[in-house]
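Each record in this resource describes a single protein on a pair of labelled lines. An example record follows, reproduced without changes.
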Amino acid sequence: MRHDVRWHEKAVKDLKKLDRVRALDLVDKVKTRLAEDPVVQGTALKGMFKGLYRYRVGDYRVIYAIDESESTILILKVGDRKSVYRLHR
């Protein structure tokens, strides 16, 4: 079942910091692959990020939450794998 994708304003700001080609690639992969099956495509996070998932696109990570009752994915953060898990940037 296909999920709707919604972007948090923080994730949109993160995308705008990336070069255009990389940002378009991330958006395309989220819309085509991740929206199809977000649980299988992503990896559940642990610890203080429990309940969230990550989706890997090269050296970048997309952090998201799934709302199965509304078939929605909320993209929370996008960033380089080295810094995406930091709470303050």
